[in-house]
Design a protein that fits this description.
GO molecular function (chains A, B): transaminase activity
CATH superfamily of the largest domain in chain A: Type I PLP-dependent aspartate aminotransferase-like (Major domain)
Radius of gyration of chain A: 23 Å
Helix content of chain A: 40-55%
Protein name (chains A, B): PLP-dependent aminotransferase family protein
Number of domains of chain A: 3
Number of helices of chain A: 18
Keywords (chains A, B): Aminotransferase, DNA-binding, Pyridoxal phosphate, Transcription, Transcription regulation, Transferase
CATH topology of the largest domain in chain A: Aspartate Aminotransferase, domain 2
Family (chains A, B): In the C-terminal section; belongs to the class-I pyridoxal-phosphate-dependent aminotransferase family.
Oligomer: homodimer
InterPro entries (chains A, B): Aminotransferase_I/II_large, HTH_trans_reg/aminotransferase, PyrdxlP-dep_Trfase, PyrdxlP-dep_Trfase_major, PyrdxlP-dep_Trfase_small, Tscrpt_reg_HTH_GntR, WH-like_DNA-bd_sf, WH_DNA-bd_sf
């Protein structure tokens, strides 16, 4: 009896701790009795008793046939309140807002994109001039529901080139890559569902998922993709509905998915109704393409999304979704209902720029510049005791460990006062397990002032 | 006892009928016991007994402290399934998709926008050429979180001109007008909340609100705004969280809000926590501005939204929200999380076009053309027995009653086979009370073939 009581309290303690840390927010569906029993290696009746006690305390509520939920109302939706109570320095929205808001004089090694001068400016200028001469309809009218046909044709061909068979009617344009994921979330998720993300992952995934009031579970990321053992355990414990990841170049680590990890991951997912969103936004930065989950899977369980914000222009908003036909049909209805189709103009300009003969040459130049900047940044950071976790094969991100005992959030706060926008590790970590990590953008890290400020702040 | 039993069954019958008609979908929160008792003029205990019987039958579920909900799971979200089971002809998404998808040869008197040739083409071409010469940052970078400053400055001044005091920091740009409403819904609403709309109203409001899984209640619209008695009753019965309307030129009726209706409506809303979204998309079409709820209210309970799709270009997506500062703060976080800021380019082009000296003259010409087209269309329709419900003071919409006994949806289906896209009344009506109404766009109704096809179809 006593041992039973201890186990019941242990289960209650786990739930209460997750509520306290805001891993579970009001309305979150907690693991089923069966899943919890398995995860904690206790009996079903122990978990049931724990859940019932928590219900009696008003901590949980139940809905017949749906399971157990964290109680308490949540409205209106304020994202800053939904997340863990953090310093604004490591809030998922903080880096976005800092990077978008700070003056152009600030140095931004924490910024997620290339400097404006590295983008395909000539191509965009040319495309704008072409658009100014184009016919009246392109200038004035709404796009077709799925989006501008020539750009979708281009994408369909490009996807074919990396082994993904996505006919024209399976490619839909969106306002941005984030918008593409948001539409998928709205289509698939209900409040309380569980979503897996990589830990660390792109911080805006946290903010986006919080807006959907879902339960976010992080899977540790390794230099060749998600940790497969942890991924399998998370499938079992949390019965997640969705997993969001980058395969080609992972944000923030810069690592790439290996074929063996891709294969094992899909084998595990195969037995479940998990949907995987593969965010392929960094595809054009790769020297040789890493394996794609969407190619292995044939767009059955995997949806590929992407955008042009990192290569052509972040100023002209356009993204895409490639998915199963029946899902595209539902997504296009949802897109019309919530944004009334997209802009023909943005897609037209992107299409002109990306099919321009200069684009390929421009990207070759960018890849070369990034390789040089990567080497240079590694050397500079190592000189002040900051070590790369992995040296990426391509891309702009470098995920680094700070000297022992350094708190990245505190360092970011100190450096911000000297005009340096950094990206502290815990903003990317669901488990808050990256306190001493920092993401650097090698394309934004050439200025020697950065290392002087960092060195001073580290020594302080 | 017998009379009690009858009353209990009457309450159960009302709920079941609303579920059958899909007014209440799974997850909808039904009226509180108190509100239902008041609405049906029965005792609280009668309603409670009715709700409990429905719970026993599994029709309803309850959540302590939150109320009663329609049972049954809903996922994934397919909008066509969420709505009433209608012919696709009167589905809220049907007109959008038909208008966006059909070839340019089709005649579209049901279309919601001006022909491409009526839009501000010259201004857009000029703005594109200016953009092509603009600095690198405008071409490449993300916009500030609130959006492109010059366009927000323009909007702040323009709002001031119609009596709305909205400083720069209270104006946020969005991807479109629909996107603006969507963000507000995400911020304020939870599944099961009730939202008031005009009946009839812009059909996409229905689709958008269905995506939020809320309970939609229509308030009959009169030629001077919503029916105030019905509005007051709906406030009492449904305790709605939000009301969405057009003040200047109402879609689909073309009617305008009167000062007395505006004043009475705000007086009723004052005692509640209702939020009002005023969609001001047709402002530039007015000869003399109608009263604005946002001006009367001083952006306390009212949020104004708008876009440039109907005047400058639907191809360049950009909308705005003007609201209380604390709401703007939350909305901007939500915008970054779900679409990662907006496009600097679209806002830049819109700003150039709308501040161009030619824009005012262009719109004068459009208003004149619309007045002529309105007169002409009224004559043509009356000749075949189709009568305007009200002759609008401005704008492109004409809401008409068909000859007695005509089914607008059937007429639309017949005419579509002859290449005519129409907008049947029930697509705009939450209560499906506009079976014999049709919305015409006078700017798309010049071709005499339209009246020949309509006449033939009416006689068949």
């Amino acid at each position: 009896m006593k041992r039973d009581g201890t186990r019941i309290k242990a289960v209650m303690g786990v739930i209460q701790a997750r509520i306290a840390s805001r891993t579970y927010t009001p309305g979150t569906r907690i693991p089923s009795v069966r899943a919890m029993a398995q995860a904690m290696q206790v009996s079903v009746s122990t978990v049931l008793e724990a859940y019932e006690r928590l219900m009696a305390e008003g901590v949980l509520t139940s809905r017949p046939g749906s399971g157990f939920f964290v109680g308490g109302p949540v409205a209106p939706l304020a994202l800053t309140e939904l997340g863990p109570k953090l310093d604004r320095e490591v809030d998922p929205l903080w880096i976005s807002r800092q990077s978008l808001e700070t003056s152009n004089d600030a140095l931004k090694p924490g910024c997620g994109w290339l400097p404006a001068s590295w983008m395909y400016e000539a191509g965009v200028r040319k495309a704008l001039r072409v658009a100014a001469r184009s016919d009246t309809m392109n200038l004035a009218e709404y796009a077709q529901p799925l989006g501008h046909i020539p750009l979708r044709q281009f994408l369909s061909r490009r996807l074919g080139g990396i082994g993904i068979d996505a006919p024209l009617e399976q490619v839909m344009l969106t306002e941005s890559g984030t918008h593409a994921i948001d539409l998928i979330c709205r289509f698939l998720l209900q409040p309380g569902d569980t979503v897996l993300v990589d830990d660390p992952c792109y911080f805006n995934f946290h903010a986006l998922l919080k807006a959907h009031r879902v339960n976010i579970v992080g899977v540790p990321y390794t230099p060749t993709g998600p940790d497969i053992t942890a991924f399998g355990a998370a499938l079992l414990e949390h019965e997640p509905r969705l997993y969001i990841t980058n395969s080609g170049i992972h944000n923030p680590t810069g690592a790439s998915l290996s074929a063996v990890t891709a294969h094992r991951l899909l084998k595990l997912a195969d037995a479940t109704d998990l949907v995987i969103v593969e965010d392929d936004i960094f595809g054009d930065f790769e020297h040789t393409p890493a394996p794609r989950l969407s190619a292995f899977d044939g767009l059955e369980q995997v949806i590929q999304i992407g955008s042009f914000s990192k290569t052509i222009s972040a100023s002209i908003r356009c993204g895409y979704v490639a998915a199963r036909s029946d899902w595209i049909e539902a997504l296009v209805d949802l897109k019309i209902a919530t944004t009334f189709g997209g802009g023909r103009m943005a897609a037209d300009i992107i299409h002109h720029a990306i099919t321009d003969s200069g684009y390929r040459k421009h990207m070759e130049g960018v890849r070369l510049r990034l390789t040089e900047a990567m080497d240079e940044t590694v050397v500079q950071l190592q000189a002040i005791g900051i070590k790369p976790w992995v040296v990426p094969r391509a891309g702009m991100y470098l995920w680094c460990q700070l000297p022992e005992g350094t708190d990245a959030a505190m360092l970011a706060r100190t450096c911000l006062r000297e005009g340096l926008v950094l990206a502290p590790g815990n903003a990317f970590s669901q488990a808050m397990a990256a306190k001493d990590f920092m993401r650097f953008n090698v394309a934004q890290s050439a200025d020697s002032t950065i290392y002087e400020v960092l060195k001073r702040a580290l020594n302080a």
